[in-house]
Specification:
0% strand; Growth Hormone, Chain: A; 85% helix; mainly alpha; 430 residues
Length: 430
């Protein structure tokens, strides 16, 4: 048994005493992403329900909700000890899911309920995932994060594989409300895994004796409801991460709108749309998982975070140029797959590594502000930008060239930020 444990630890770049925590982190992300990706195909279908031409309004509504929610989130973070904070956040969203179960059983075909759910799940996704990565950056120190985050992120991909598959298989049997109930149960399981990770932190993680000084998780994070914004504005490094997110969302939104338009044209029935989006998500997560298990960790160790953050933008830039020259569905589908696999397998673990060396206020408040308000603000801005480009009447060519420019800037900024993270990790290792 011990020999098997040692082999498993070596395979995932973990030390022996880290294995239990890494597996718990893997399982936590499995639960979160399995639940979210069961709901994601439902969200995509509900976004289409109100008309593809109205998607930018849904993006804008999501951004407005974020503006209202983030100060409340930050206020709660300053009142509740970090060790209990996730319980409050996840418990709140569990109750929300149970409420939607009842509402959809009462009025399944309501367009406005569909729109509310679309906005809510967009908020849910960013808050739940952002808080989970804040937890990981809190539990593991910078050197541990560089070795272990790729495998932990693989838990998200395994969950992302199971979620859409379950959604596609079960949607006909248990319906949308049944999938929501399953997601609530998985969120509860994530809360239990969080408790184990915070206990391990004190023994072997960022809170252990000899680790770099870190604030006690038994105290609330200092600051006021707007300290996430002020912390970001006061740091060139955090501003750079914010700009990185804005460019990422611009690229993603351009592709997302085209995907929604094509699926709406080809699959008018909502159940069929859920199945299509579920299959797409399954393919993407399978590719992301393979990359995370066999490529991401080795690239991070040998080539550094800068390669994780710049490789995918470079490929997407080339893809947009290809789309400008040959605006076909096959080209769009290929580019969409590369972008999403690359984001899950390389960009997401890499950008989370950027926060590992920072203080608790940056990890929880500034990071949350960037992951929610900046992210959804970028969605809203790029959604309206896409609508404006479409109005010019130049077709896919103009959108593709603007996308290529955004991807090029995204890659250059990723190279710069990743270089800073690599130098910080080298100092910790030394």
């Amino acid at each position: 048994m011990q020999a098997l444990t040692r082999r498993l630890a070596r395979a995932i770049n973990a030390e022996g005493e880290e294995l239990a925590a890494v597996l718990a982190g893997f399982a936590l992300f499995f639960c979160l992403f399995a639940g979210y990706f069961m709901l994601r195909p439902i969200r995509e279908a509900m976004g289409i329900t109100g008309g593809v031409n109205n998607l930018q309004w849904l993006f804008t509504a999501t951004f407005v909700v974020m503006l209202l929610a983030v100060p409340l989130f930050a206020w709660l973070n300053s009142k509740v000890p970090r060790i209990h904070f996730i319980d409050w956040v996840y418990g709140f969203f569990c109750l929300n899911l149970l409420a939607f179960v009842l509402l959809f059983r009462i009025d399944h075909d309501s367009v406005w309920l569909a729109r509310v759910f679309y906005v809510w799940i967009s908020v849910y996704n960013l808050f739940v995932i952002s808080v989970a990565w804040s937890l990981m950056a809190d539990v593991f120190d910078g050197a541990q994060a560089r070795r272990l985050f790729a495998f932990i992120a693989a838990g998200a991909s395994v969950g992302g594989l199971c979620g859409p598959l379950l959604s596609a298989v079960l949607i006909g049997a248990i319906g949308e409300s049944g999938l929501m109930l399953m997601a609530a149960v998985l969120l509860g399981a994530a809360m239990a895994l969080k408790r184990h990770l915070m206990e391990w932190r004190e023994r072997q993680g960022a809170g252990r004796s000899g680790a770099l000084a870190n604030e006690s998780p038994r105290r609330p994070v200092p600051g006021n409801p707007f300290s996430g914004l002020t912390r970001m504005l006061g740091s060139r490094y955090l501003l750079g991460i914010g700009a990185f997110i804005l460019l990422l969302t611009s690229v993603s939104t351009f592709l997302y709108f085209e995907q929604a338009r094509l699926v709406a044209e080809l699959f008018p029935d909502r159940a069929a749309q859920v199945k299509v989006f579920g299959v797409i998500d399954f393919v993407v997560q399978a590719g992301a998982l393979a990359a995370q298990l066999f490529i991401t960790g080795r690239v991070a160790q040998k080539l550094g975070v800068r390669v994780l953050l710049s490789l995918v933008p470079a490929l997407v830039c080339l893809g947009f140029i290809g789309l400008a020259l040959a605006p076909t569905f096959a080209m769009l589908a290929g580019l969409m797959i590369v972008r999403r696999i690359g984001e899950y397998a390389f960009v997401r673990p890499g950008r989370e590594m950027l926060f590992a060396p920072l203080d608790a206020e940056s990890k929880y408040k500034a990071k949350n502000f960037i992951d929610t308000v900046v992210y959804r603000g970028g969605d809203a801005l790029s959604g309206w930008a896409k609508a404006g480009l479409d109005m010019l009447g130049h077709g896919a060519w103009l959108v593709a060239m603007v996308g290529a420019l955004c991807a090029a800037l995204w890659g250059m900024l990723g190279w710069y930020l990743g270089g800073r993270a690599d130098r910080q990790a080298e100092r910790q290792d030394g």
